[in-house]
């Protein structure tokens, strides 16, 4: 047989109905190659043969044999060079390679292993040793292929999950209010970046009449489609007609007290944190209630800051529970801005692990105060991404701003 030839032989000794393992023999010596092929066929394997490295690589890529038995000394492309090319090719790099050599010096064996061989076989080896090493290589190949199949299945399921999360994220985005003028003299701007895992951050504005609005930002514990849909359910409740006809339906504390009854802690232990605020544009007053949420502050046009904080339990922790409405004592002035935000915008780790933190976040907002509010929000999210080192946040990012413009 010429050294550059290639052939395929189906074993006649395989179990009926079973697919025999395939072994590729790459050797430039025809007698040695034919002898090994004959032995392998007697063992019940399907055998491929190549007389030099280039043809062997072509067969390996096309046929994907479970095991390749490779001669070290060959013209043009020796065994170690063949191994290196295999390990550089992602399609075949997991292939099992059994190197044949007439030498058994430790330094040569070390070189072959370093360049990509999985095992060695002396050309002077006994029939028993050849059988044992071939069987060992095939067992390893079988385990690797099972692992590759499992990995492919995991990736397929991950792709399906990511598609579901993206669909849920688009649904959540559809629930967000449009930015712009809410009422004459009251402007809205916001940013929302869902994480890959998708959390339950959500915010909205309720326009009650020409003088009053309600606004809230909520966060469901956990990640995935279920918390996101549960947040959507709470959002539907907050803007639904049933709440509107109850006593105190425009009172932030009363709203959270009723929501606490409707959304108790689940069997899985999931819950909501939320801050709900009310703007009275005619009286220029602001009141709020909080259920375990401290992500809000008022940036006064004078430069001062008032944090909207109140010690309280998240929704569902204690039923019944009364949530208190806090009234800010000083009327608002033109240029005052209220910011509501989730912890995902400041609990952002740098590559070193250090958190950006609420203090850096607030300072970024305040130092940008002369910019239009939409630019302040965009710049703040950009700074958070810079701290993180990329644009894919580990948790949902929700940041909403309301400005009294006149």
Describe the structure.
- The chain is α+β, with helices and mostly antiparallel strands.
- It has 2 domains: 6-150, Rossmann fold, CATH 3.40.50.2300; 175-404, Phosphatase 2c, domain 1 (4-Layer Sandwich), CATH 3.60.40.
- The chain is built from 10 helices and 17 strands.
- The chain has helices at residues 30-42, 53-63, 79-87, 106-114, 127-174, 225-239, 241-244, 252-262, 357-367, 373-388; strands at 6-9, 22-26, 46-50, 67-71, 96-101, 119-122, 180-183, 186-193, 202-207, 212-220, 272-280, 285-291, 296-299, 305-307, 326-327, 337-341, 397-404.
User: Percent helix among the residues?
Assistant: 25-40%
CATH-level-2 architecture of the largest domain: 4-Layer Sandwich
Summarize the biggest pleated sheet. Answer: 6 strands, mixed
Cα-based radius of gyration, to the nearest Å: 34 Å
Measured by DSSP, the beta-strand proportion falls in 15-25%
SSE run: EEHEHEHEHEHEEEEHHHEEEEEEHHE
CATH T-level topology of the largest domain? Phosphatase 2c, domain 1
Count structural domains: 2
Structural class: alpha+beta
List the strand order in the largest sheet. Answer: 1-3-2-4-5-6
